[in-house]
Amino acid sequence: MNRLERHTTRTKELQVFGESLKAEFWTKIPCTVTEYDPETLTIKAQPMIQGSQRQTDGTFQDVDLPLLLDVPVLFPNAGDFSITFPIKEGDNCLVFFADRCIDFWHESGEISPARSFRMHDLSDGFAYFGPRPKTKIPAEVSTENFEIRNEDGTLKILMTPDKTITAQNEGGTITLDNEGNLTMTLKGAHNITADGDLSIEAQGSASITCNEATIEAQSSVTASAGSCKIEMSSSQVAINGYSLTVKP
């Protein structure tokens, strides 16, 4: 064998060794949730990419990877605040794997030694929710605005570049623009209940237009406009200080 052939053979051996070494390291893999524990914020997840297993005859067969157990869920959080999601069976996630064993840290939250010498192992994953296949893309994703929404877009909080905030569902829409104008378009009955005082103030005019209006108070109601003031209690009506007794 000449030197060139020997060099080529050695290179191929190193390539094969490198590929086999990489096959032992896990980085990230898409998974589907099979079970969620909201008490421990962990999931069981099934990897959605199969592995390849050598058969006795030297051929390879695609096989399912083992179920990933006790995978910590990554919810965005900092300080005293968190954003959480109602994870359900069948949800998609991306599980990525730590460089070292996370068992002791996951149990205590403290600086801890690694329980084992494993690295990039299927036992040390974290679940990040967001990646999804093309078959589960939500409808009408906004290309201009920030949205927090459900899958079909019937429930959302919308923030636009002009600093307008809109909250909407099938019952109506509430919009606050960047000048402080509040617009509400609602369906059904609307109730305002206050355990303490309730005050509505306007620098300009205020109007209520409806077929029928009812104002109820346990003690008294006061309405004023300019120099005119009307006070109502359970037994009296007073207009600018002049009282009218109401008998049952």
Structural features, described:
This protein has 248 residues and is mainly β. The protein is built from 2 helices and 18 strands. The protein has a 5-stranded antiparallel sheet, with no helix packed on it. It is elongated and about 110 Å long. The model has no long low-confidence stretch (mean pLDDT 84).
Short description:
The chain is mostly beta strands and 248 residues long.
Keyphrases for this structure?
248 residues; 5-stranded antiparallel β-sheet; 18 strands; mainly beta; 2 helices
- Which H/E pattern describes the elements? HEEEEEEEEHEEEEEEEEEE
> Number of helical segments?
2
Strand arrangement, major sheet: 5-2-1-8-9
Distance between the termini: 119 Å
- What integer is the average pLDDT? 84
What fraction, in percent, of the residue positions are helical? 10-25%
What form results from the Cα inertia axes? elongated
Largest sheet: 5 strands, antiparallel
How many β strands by DSSP? 18
Gyration radius (Cα, Å) is 32 Å
Strand content: 25-35%
Instruction: Report the structural category.
Output: mainly beta
Low-confidence stretches: none
Strand and helix map with partners:
Layout: H1 3-22, E1 28-37, E2 42-47, E3 51-54, E4 60-63, E5 68-72, E6 77-78, E7 81-82, E8 92-97, H2 103-108, E9 125-128, E10 146-149, E11 156-159, E12 165-169, E13 172-176, E14 182-186, E15 220-225, E16 228-233, E17 236-239, E18 242-245
Antiparallel strand pairs: 1-2, 1-8, 2-5, 3-4, 6-7, 8-9, 10-11, 11-12, 12-13, 13-14, 15-16, 16-17, 17-18
